Amino acid sequence: MLDRQIENLQKPVGALQAKRIMVLGACCAFGRSMSRALSAAGAQVVAADADAQALGQLSDAVPLTLKGAPEEALRRVGRVWGEARLDAVLNLMPLRHPEQIDLNIAVLQGIVQGFMPALSLSGGQILTVVSRPEQPLDVAGGAMAPAILSAQTALAHALRRDGLTLNTVSVGAGVVTPARKTVIGLLSGTLGPLTGSEVRL
User: Residue 43: what are its φ and ψ, rounded to 5°?
Assistant: First the structure.
């Protein structure tokens, strides 16, 4: 059923033409912006979040409501998704939960465990966006990016042979437009074949 919903979306020709991309944490401000930008670039967008009401307000995306703990919800959805095509997961959960390091590491693992069959069929990508704290002494917020990068590096090394790439975009305040362009560049491959990397904006 999800395949039919996705294929029914009419997309313009663009850098991400016909790529199927799941936006995880799609109901945050950046998630809504990215869902629109990915759709405008030609992607088939699956917007995933726990907020069913906010998902219903997103146009040009197929809504996918996650129920329960995010990492467990991703494993459940991944089992159902199976080997249906999925080109990328844009992980925005660190923007939704910027100080919950353990949760965000578990979500990254849940993405890999749940969607590896689908992602490995298409040389898929997992791209995580994290924010850098505005206050230099915000220790909890500042620890997120290094923790995600450490987990990503280990996963990228282990999954390289399966054709999966994992990268992180680290954003500071006021860089929404460059972040959108960078995310689209990474997902379309125009920024090169990177894996285990951090792009700082």
Answer: -75, 150
